[in-house]
Amino acid sequence: MILQQVFDGLTLGIVYALIAVGYSLVFGVLRLVNFAHGATYAFGAHIAMVVVVSTNFGLFWAIIISVIMTGLMTMFMDRIALRPLRAKKSKGISALITTIGCSYIIQNALMIVFGSRSKWFPKIFDYGNFQIGNVLVKSTQVGIITVSVVLLLLLTFIVQKTKIGLAMRAVQQNAKAASLMGIDVNRVISFTFFLGGASAAVAGSLISGYYQIVNPQMGFIAGLKAFSAAVLGGIGILHGAVFGGLVVGLAESFAAFYIGGGYRDAVAFIILIVVLIFRPNGLFGKKVIEKV
Amino acid sequence: MPKPILELKDINTYYGMIHAVKGINMEISKGEIVALIGSNGAGKSTTLNTIAGLLKPKKGQIIYDGKDLSHSSAAEIVKMGICLSPEGREVFPDLSVQDNLKLGAFTRKDRAMIQRDYDKVYSLFPRLYERKVQVAKTLSGGEQQMLAIGRALMSDPKVLLLDEPSLGLSPNLVMLIFDLIKDIKKLGVTILLVEQNAKMALKTADRAYVLETGRITLEGTGKQLLTDDNVRKAYLGNI
Q1: Which of A126, A128, A145, A171 is deepest in the core (most CB within 10 A)?
Q2: Which residues in chain A are closer than 8 Å to B86, comparing Cβ atoms?
C-alpha cells in the first residue's frame, strides 16, 4: 500500500515542482514572490479547456496554445504593472501587493468569462490502467510524470546552458553589472515571466486532465502549496523547488491516506513550518550574508 | 589636436535631488589615456555612469563618433563600443571566470573575433587563465579587479571607462594594474580613468581633468598637473 501512496504522491509532487519552479525563476531574477502565479496556473488550464471544447485541435495543440497565451499574458502583466514600478525604483512590497492584485484580476476575469462553477476537462493520456506488483498505475499518471520531467529538464537546460540562461543568471547576481554587459535587463525579466507562465500553463493543464475538472479558484491552494514547496527547497534554487514539490506531493498523498482527507492541504504547511525552524533558508538554500 | 572620439558638452546629472555634475565639458581623443581626478563626492563616478548610460543627464550632450548618446540605453552604448568597468568591480560572484568573460562579449556574434579576445585577455591577465573555472567570489581583490577589466575588454570597446581600478589594492598590485592600463592603451583602446590615487593616475595619463563639487576646475597634461601647486596641495599630499 505504501508504494501506491508513493507513486500517487510523486505524480502530484512533480506537478507542484513544475509550478514551484515558476516561483523560483521569477524570484531569482527579481527577488519578488509572484503571487499571481496560482491564478496564472488557473488561466492556463482554462485556455486549454476552451480550445479543446470550442475547436477540434485536440488536447495536445490546446496545451501548446495555452502555453503560448499564458506566457504572453504573464509578460503583459510584467510590462504594464511591474516594469513601471522597477523604473521608479519602488520598494519590493509595492511589487508584491501588485502581484496579489493581478492574481485577483486574472481570477475574476476567468469567473466573468467562464462562470465560477467547475467545468469539465478532458482526461489526459487516457490509455487505461495497468498493475505493476501491487501498485495500480494509471496511464494518465505516467504521462503527467513524463511531461513534467521533460519540461523540468528543458528549463534546467535553458537556465544552465543557453545564452539567455547565462543572462538570467547574470541579472540574478548583479542586475547593474548585467546592463553594463549590454544585457537588456527588462527583456531577460520578460523572458523569465514567459517561462514561469508557460510552465504554469502546462501544470494547470496536466492537473486538470488528471481530475477532469477546471475552476477559476483552482490556482489558490495549488499556488500556495507550490510556493511553500519553493520555499521548502530554498527559493531561487531550481533543484530545490523540484525537491520541495516532490516532498509536498508525497506528504499530501500520505496524509490523505493515513490521517484523512481533511488534512491533505494542511500537511504541506506543517512540513514547511518545521523545516524553516531548522533551516530558515530552505533545504538547499545558502546562508545569505546581507551586505550593507 | 585630432578630432575627439568622445566629447561631453555641458553635461548636468542629478542623483535624485542632488545636482552631482554641473555642466561638464570634456574632450577625449582617440588612443589617449585621460584621467579624471578629484576628492570623494566630486562627481567622478557620476560622470562615468552618465557616459555609460546608467544615469541620464538632465541637460547636455555626449557625442561619440559623431552621434549623441545622451538618450541611449546602457545596452546600446556597450554595443556602440563604450564599456565601463565599474567601481567596486561588480563581478558576477557565483559565475566562473570564463562565464564572467563570456558575459563581457554578450552583445557580440563574431565567434572567431571573440576567441581572439579571450586569448588577448588571458595573455594580459595570465592569472585569470589559471583560475578560469573558479567562481569569481573565490578570487582575491586584485584578481577580481583584473576580471572586471578583462570582462569590459571582452566587449571589444573603442573607449574603456575605468572607475577606481586601484581601490583597495596593495601597493604592488596598484603598480601592476597601472602597468596593465598602459598595455591596454597599446592595444589601441582609448581610456577614461577615474581615480582617487591622483599621483598614479597623473603619471599614467596623457591628459587629465580635475573635478571639484561637480565642476571641472583644471585641465592639462598629466605632467603639468603633477607639478601644479594647487593639485599638489589638494590631491598629492604636498610632496
Answers
A1: A171
A2: 176-177, 180
